Amino acid sequence: MSYATRNMSLWVLAWPIFLEMLLQFALGAADTLMVSRISDDAVAVVGIANQLFNAVNILFMSIANGAGILIAQKLGAGRLDEARTTGMISLKVCTAIGFAVSVLLVAGAGPITRMLQMPEELWPLGETYIATVGGGMTFLAIMSALSAVVRNTGNTRSPMMVGVGINVLHVLMNYVVIYGALGVPQLGLQGVAWSTTISRIIGALLLLYMFRHAFSVRYELRDLRLFDRGLFRETVKLSWPLGVHMSCWCFTQLVLFAMVASLGAAELSARTYMNTLESFCFTIGSAIATAGQIRIAHLYGAGQWKLAYKDSYRVLWIGLAFVQANALLLYGFGGPVLGLFTSDSNIVSIGVSLLALNLLLQPSKMLNMALNSALTGVGDTRSIMWVGIPSMWAVSVGLSFALGFGAGWGLAGIYTAMIVDECVRGFLLLLRWRFHRKRLTGEQPPQPDLQPRTAAYTI
Question: Are residue 207 and residue 260 in the same domain, yes or no?
Fold first, then answer.
C-alpha cells in the first residue's frame, strides 16, 4: 500500500506503535532475566554499558526523527521527490555517524570501560561486551534511520513487525548461547553481545527492503547519489534541538536515579519496580502521542492547518483517558503486583505510598508528550528544547533535591518534583502551541514556505 492510499487515522497509526513498545518492554525484561542467569556481574556490565549505548542512540534518533518530521510534511504537501531525497539523506548521514561510532567503540573499548567506572574485576567482561555490541552500532543507526522514514510515511506496522521479530530472535539466540541449546557451546555474555549484534544486522536488512518500497517510486542503487543541501539544512534544523532535549532528559534521569540511590537500597529498589509498573501507563500514552505527531505533520504539510491544530487536542484527550484509566488500575492493584516482584515488605510499602502520586504523574506526562508531539509535528523543535532544559534541571533536579533532602520528604519529594516538572513543561508548551493558533486556524496568513505545492491526499 502506498502512502497516498494509506489510512492515516490516529488509531491505525497508534496501535502498531503501542504493540511494538509493549512487546519490546516485555522482551527486554525477559532478556535481563536471562542475562542474570549468567551472573550478577554480567547484569551489571550490561546495565552500565547500555547507559552508554542509549546515549549514543540519542544521536541517531535525533537525526532520524528530524528527517521523519520533514518527510511527513513533504508528503503532506505532495512533494514526493523531496521526501524521497530526505529519506536517503537521513540514511547516509546516520550510517556515516554510526560507522564512526562503531570504530571508536571497538578501538577504545578498554579506555571506555574504565571511563564508565566499572569495577576492575569487570573490565574483561566490559571490554568484550562494549567492543562486540559497539561494533554493531552502525546497524542500530541504520535501523533508526529506516524506521523513522517508513513510519513517517504512515506505515507504522512494518517497523512494528521488524522490531518485535528481531527482539524475539534476540531472546531465542540468548537462550541458545546462555544455556548451550542445539549443541551450541555456552558462550556467556560474549554470546549475548553477538546475539544483539546479529539481530540488529537482520533488522537493518529487513527494514532496508521496506525502505526501498516506502514510496510510490521505489529506491534504486542510483538513488544513493541523492543529496540536497537545502533539505539537509532543514533536517539539521529540526534534529539538533531534539538531540539536545533528549540528551538533557537522559542526563537528568541519571542524576535523579543517583539521588534515589543515595536515599538507600530499599528506595532504589522501590523506584526501579515502580518505573517498571509505570511503563504500562507511559507506553500507551507515548504511542498515541507518536501517532499524533505523524498525523499532525502530514496535515501540516498538506496545508490542513486548522485540522492539525484541532488534532493536537484530540490526541491529548484520548491519551489522557487511556493513561488515567491505567493509572487508576495501577493504584487499585499496584500493591499485590509489587508483591510479585519482591517479598521485602519495606520495599512494597514504599512503592504503595507512591501509587497515589502516580495518579498525578501520568496525566502530567501525557500533557507534556501530547504538546511535545504537536510542536514537533509542525517543526517547532526549538521551543521544546528551550522549555525543557531549564525545567528539567531547575525543577526536576533542583526541586527534587530541595524536597527530597532539604525538606526530608525522601522519595515522595522526588516524585513531587517530577510531577511539577511535567506540569510546568506541559503548561509552557501549551502556551507555545496556542501561540501557533492564529497561523494554523487561518486567522493569520501562513508563511509562504508552508504552502503545499499540490494537494497530496485526503486524510
Answer: no
The C-alpha atoms of residue 448 and residue 184 are separated, in whole angstroms, by 63
Whether residues 65 and 209 fall in one domain: yes
Q: Which amino acid is at 139?
A: F
Owning domain of residue 346: 236-459
Domain termination site, one of 227, 258, 285 = 227
CB atoms within 10 A of CB 196: 24
Choose among 148, 108, 337, 382: nearest CA to 245: 382
Asked whether 171 and 196 are in contact (CB, 8 A), the reply is: no
CA distances 302 to 72, 74, 109, 265, 453, Å, are 9, 8, 47, 53, 9
Q: Kindly state whether residues 147 and 207 are assigned to the same domain.
A: yes
Same domain membership, residue 138 and residue 269: no
pLDDT in 10s for each residue of the chain, 459 residues = 444 445 567 888 888 888 877 776 666 566 666 676 677 677 667 767 776 787 788 888 888 989 999 999 999 888 999 999 999 999 999 999 999 999 999 998 888 888 766 777 778 888 888 899 889 999 999 999 999 999 999 888 899 899 888 888 888 898 888 888 888 888 888 888 898 899 999 999 999 999 999 898 899 989 888 889 999 999 999 999 988 998 888 888 878 877 887 888 778 777 777 777 787 777 888 889 999 999 999 999 888 888 999 999 999 999 999 999 989 998 888 888 777 767 778 888 888 888 889 999 999 999 999 999 999 999 999 999 999 999 999 999 999 999 999 998 988 999 999 999 999 999 999 999 998 887 777 655 444 444 444 433 333
Closest CA to 348 of 364, 333, 326, 368: 333
Asked if residue 123 lies in contact with residue 45, where contact means CB atoms within 8 angstroms, the answer is no
Give me 254's grid cell.
Answer: 541519571
Domain count, the chain: 2
What does the chain come to in residues?
459
Provide the strand spans (E) within 319-395. none
How far is residue 22's CA from residue 257's CA, in Å, rounded to a whole number?
Answer: 23
Cell numbers linked to 65: 526523527
Please tell me the distance from the alpha carbon of residue 301 to that of residue 295, in angstroms, as a whole number.
Answer: 10
